């Protein structure tokens, strides 16, 4: 038997000995008194999703523009947070503090 298996079984047995967490009072009275949500049939939702014309050439162009803008913002955020001059000034201050 590999050494990991007895360790895993021991941990599972140990976890089984733990007390269940107390969940009393974690649900508000309004939530406890609320009715269960009504289930909706799936067929109408699938039919609506399959309708043609939801993606048009105009919406594709708009989405491409949004995507390009988001990619440009992400690229700008990937740059350095501290500019080179500030970084050099901070390094000099750290060096001075280390010499004291």
Description:
With 100 residues, this protein is mostly helical. It has a domain at 65-100. Helix content is 63%, strand content 0%. It is flat, with a radius of gyration of 29 Å. The protein starts with a helix and ends with a helix.
Largest sheet: none
Strand content bin: under 5%
- Roughly what percent helix? 55-70%
Terminal CA distance reads 59 Å
Structural class: mainly alpha
Q: Assign an overall shape.
A: flat
Please write the string of helix (H) and strand (E) elements: HHHHH
Provide the residue-averaged pLDDT: 88
Radius of gyration: 29 Å
Number of helices: 5
Low-confidence stretches: none
Q: How many beta-strand segments? A: 0
Keywords: Signal
Signal peptide: 1-20
Short description:
Helices cover 63% and strands 0% of the residues. It is built from 5 helices and no strands.
Salient structural properties:
single chain; 100 residues; flat; signal; mainly alpha; 5 helices
Secondary-structure map:
Blueprint: H1 4-16, H2 29-33, H3 42-49, H4 57-77, H5 84-99
């Amino acid at each position: 038997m590999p050494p990991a298996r007895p360790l895993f079984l021991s941990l599972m047995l140990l976890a089984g000995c733990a007390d269940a967490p107390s969940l009393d009072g974690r649900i508000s009275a309004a939530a406890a008194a609320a009715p269960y949500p009504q289930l909706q049939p799936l067929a109408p939702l699938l039919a609506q999703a399959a309708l043609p014309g939801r993606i048009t050439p105009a919406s594709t162009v708009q989405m491409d523009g949004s995507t390009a803008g988001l990619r440009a913002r992400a690229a700008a955020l990937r740059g350095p947070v501290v500019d080179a001059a500030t970084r050099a000034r901070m390094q000099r201050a750290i060096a001075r503090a280390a010499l004291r």
